Amino acid sequence: MDFHGFEDYYLWLRMLSGGMKGYNLSEVLVYMRVGNGMYARRGGVSYLKDMAEFRKIMLNSGYINLLEFLASVIVRGIVILMPANLRKQYIRSFSESNPWLKDRDFAFKKYNPWFCL
User: Fold this and answer.
1) Does the global pTM surpass 0.90?
2) How far is CA 76 from the centre of its chain?
3) What is the DSSP string of 35-50?
4) Pairwise CA distance, residues 105 & 96, whole Å
5) Kind and range of the H or E element at 75?
């Protein structure tokens, strides 16, 4: 299956389904520079469809329930459908209020709240 934009999540889902265990880590593992292109790639109807399809796989696999599915698709859907410049402002405002991401102008800490092996 091809989950454009969600390959990492799909890998983690397959690993969990295969019986592997994951753990949360508090330390930052990766710093990632983001540019305007990232905000553009994370939006639009096509990306919304990909995200909803992946969330549906998570629902059908039992990793999220119906309420979590609906909440994530609706909330993320609103952000995904925003114009790229507005989405950038929204994400940056969230990043500035998040203690994990604070004090980063052009980079943010890539922290996977799900798990890291």
Assistant:
1) no
2) 9
3) -HHHHHHT-SHHHHHH
4) 9
5) helix 66-81
Rg (CA), the chain: 15
**For residues 65-102, b (16+ Cβ closer than 10 Å) or e, as one string?**
eeeebeebbeebbeebebebeebbeebbeeeeeeeebe
Tell me how far CA of residue 58 lies from CA of 53, 72, 88, in angstroms.
Answer: 9, 11, 27
Find, among 74, 82, 42, 33, the residue nearest to 55 by Cα.
74
**Contact indicator for 115, 23 with CB cutoff of 8 Å:** yes
Per-residue pLDDT reduced to its tens digit, 35-86: 778 888 889 999 999 999 999 998 998 888 999 999 999 999 999 999 988 9
Residue found under tokens 């405002």: 93
Contact 103, 82 (CB under 8 A): no
Three-class DSSP category at 13: helix
